[in-house]
Design a protein that fits this description.
Layout: H1 18-25, E1 32-34, E2 59-66, E3 69-76, H2 87-103, E4 107-112, H3 122-141, E5 146-150, E6 156-157, H4 159-165, E7 169-173, E8 178-179, H5 183-190, H6 200-207, H7 209-214, E9 220-222, H8 226-238, H9 245-262, H10 268-275, H11 288-297, H12 300-303
Helix pairs in contact: 2-3, 3-4
């Protein structure tokens, strides 16, 4: 049975399940799930490792309406294996994106909550990541925006971070994090001297929502409420860029400029200072309203993401 959100205005996106997020995000009663738990499409690999399975494999896909407009949606369940990609999990998302080419919805919304690829299904998971990224480019080329929403416990790590980067637009909250390599992965390979995964402040200064918004890795920073993500989704769909050579050239130039400008920085606070933030140390403690005021005070070229 779907977990219901009784007050989507104040309900926490971070704390909600995948289905509860969809329940509050979409127009009331409009969601129709594809390949639901009753079909029991579970991972064929997890039993080999004596691991529990989920009847939806941690991925909820379907169709609904957002402010009356038809949309396709995919929501990862971070509470099952950290929302990690496996064969079935990834195939459901790929299938949804391919359906968008035929159905031509107003947008495809991806609710990220993932630590990356399941180690137990590494090859299948990596293949799924590549297939999803290709499918997103095909959907965007067909004129359908793909908007990512990031604010769950697992963030958008590993292949999830790569997929997020292929979306038309991204909205992120304070709890959201975006990165290809997770804190523990970096520490394991480079040592705590390079990156201390236990330093939560460092993690958020490097991968957190505010940092990603300031550096152009996300297009909207929102409060941790389902209502705020709904409002952001509507706004981002309306200003999704065309997927053409001009867009790609502009993104390449932005990334090259970012590397040249910030490549020597050792910490997020150094980057924020170069952006023109007068008190970088105050950024992590800012409310959303204060952070919005900061964004407005910066030059347009420093914070206008993609």
């Amino acid at each position: 049975m779907s977990e219901r959100i009784t007050n989507s205005t104040t309900a926490s996106w971070y704390e909600a399940s995948a289905r509860a997020r969809l329940d509050g995000l979409l127009d009331d009663g409009s969601f129709r799930e594809f390949i639901g738990p009753e079909q029991r499409r579970t991972s064929p690999h997890l039993p080999l490792f004596d691991l529990p399975r989920a009847f939806d494999d941690g991925m909820v896909v379907g169709a609904g309406r957002l402010d009356g407009k038809p949309v396709l949606v995919a929501a990862q369940e971070g509470r099952f294996m950290g929302g990690a990609f496996g064969e079935v999990h990834g195939a459901k998302l790929v299938g949804l994106l391919r359906a968008a080419l035929t159905l031509k919805p107003a947008a495809v919304l991806i609710l990220f909550d993932t630590g990356g690829v399941r180690l137990q299904e590494a090859n299948a998971g990596e293949t799924a990541i590549a297939e999803v990224m290709r499918a997103i480019t095909e959907v965007r080329s067909a004129g359908v925006p793909v908007v990512g929403l990031i604010g769950g416990r697992a963030g958008a790590y590993g292949g999830g971070g790569l997929i997020a980067a292929t979306c038309s637009r991204l909205a992120v909250s304070e709890g959201g994090r975006i990165s290809v390599s997770g804190p523990e992965v970096i520490e394991t390979n480079k040592g705590a001297e390079e990156f201390d995964s236990r330093d939560r402040g460092l993690v958020w200064r490097t991968m957190g929502g505010k940092h990603r918004r300031l550096t152009g890795g996300a297009d909207a920073f929102v409060d941790d409420t389902v209502a705020a993500f709904r409002e952001a989704a509507l706004a981002l769909i309306a200003r999704a860029p065309a997927f053409d050579l001009a867009t790609l050239d502009a993104e390449q130039a932005r990334l090259e400029e970012r590397l040249a400008r910030f490549g020597a920085c050792r910490d997020g606070t150094e980057i924020w200072a170069r952006l023109g933030v007068n008190d970088p140390a105050a950024v992590p403690g800012m409310t959303t309203a204060e952070f919005d005021a900061l964004l407005a005070s910066l030059a347009e070229t420093t914070h206008d993401a993609r």
